[in-house]
Amino acid sequence: MAIQTTRGHARTADPTISIVIPALNEARNLERVLPELPAVHQVVLVDGGSVDDTVEVARRLMPAVDVVQQTRRGKGNALVCGFAAATGDVVVMFDADGSADPAEIPAFVDALTAGADFAKGSRFRPGGGSHDITRFRGLGNRFLNIVTNLLLRTRYTDLCYGYNAFWREVLPQLALPSHLSPVGAGAMLWGDGFEIETVLNCRVVAAGLAVTEVPSIERSRFFGVSNLNAVRDGVRVLRTILAERRAARRGTVVELPDSPAGSDVRRIGPVTVDHQLPVLTPCGAQDYADALEQIA
């Protein structure tokens, strides 16, 4: 059975699913995560050069898993490598640390088959929540969320959350940094780091794609410590928001100072408002807007 989208695309009501899992030294977590996954068309594990037995554990627990080695550093590059290897109709972004609940995958797919191009997880929609986020990170996320909604005229409730799903066919419209782009040893392109989620959130809006937020409960990480640095990566996310906004207003490319010459960037058109997203309570929004006028 086919479904018709607002853009006239014919999509299947029973899509095949590719789950993309970036992993760096996550062997202990994968021992618990992989057995929880539902039976799907494809699971892609993207290894970031693990020095533990991450790959061996994955292949032992899931012999049919597709293992991909990422081409540069960072979560963003790992995801792009996984997207390139995905063959399903729908791609699900899934963390290896146990924070994402596999039981929620059907809700993301339902949002897509109901007409969304991009299904975005939200810990702050009714029915969502988090057992992991700290007060400091929560405040930072709220600030960045308000900034995004003010500057891009969006209505997101949770900017910095990586549990998302989308129709694989929309990838060309996002023009993410190519996994094949060569850089110097240890170098990263803009979008290769934790800012990838913000890049995606900005570009689905810039591309005029339909976004639906899906309530999600973030679980605590099973083992180990996150590679996320709240301050460093928060600043990187803020720079991403400002750069994407300036590019959207000018209709020019996004290229920041630490992007090497010749790196893959994209031209984006005017930002559109997505009325499917709920309104964020504008607590202190004017103060943030005033501060951002000085930053910009």
Feature tags:
296 residues, alpha/beta, Spore Coat Polysaccharide Biosynthesis Protein SpsA, Chain A, two-stranded antiparallel ribbon, 11 strands, 15% strand, globular, disordered C terminus
Tell me what the structure shows.
The protein is an alpha/beta fold. It has a single domain, classed as Spore Coat Polysaccharide Biosynthesis Protein SpsA, Chain A. It has 9 helices and 11 strands. A 7-stranded mixed β-sheet has the order 5-4-3-6-9-7-10, sandwiched between helices. Strand 3 (17-23), helix 1 (27-33) and strand 4 form a beta-alpha-beta unit.
SSE diagram, text form:
Blueprint: E1 2-4, E2 10-12, E3 17-23, H1 27-33, E4 42-47, H2 54-61, E5 66-69, H3 75-85, E6 90-93, H4 105-113, E7 118-122, E8 129-130, H5 135-152, E9 164-167, H6 171-174, H7 196-206, E10 211-215, E11 217-218, H8 230-250, H9 285-295
Parallel strand pairs: 3-4, 3-6, 4-5, 7-10, 8-11
Antiparallel strand pairs: 1-2, 6-9, 7-9
Helix pairs in contact: 1-2, 5-8, 5-9, 7-8
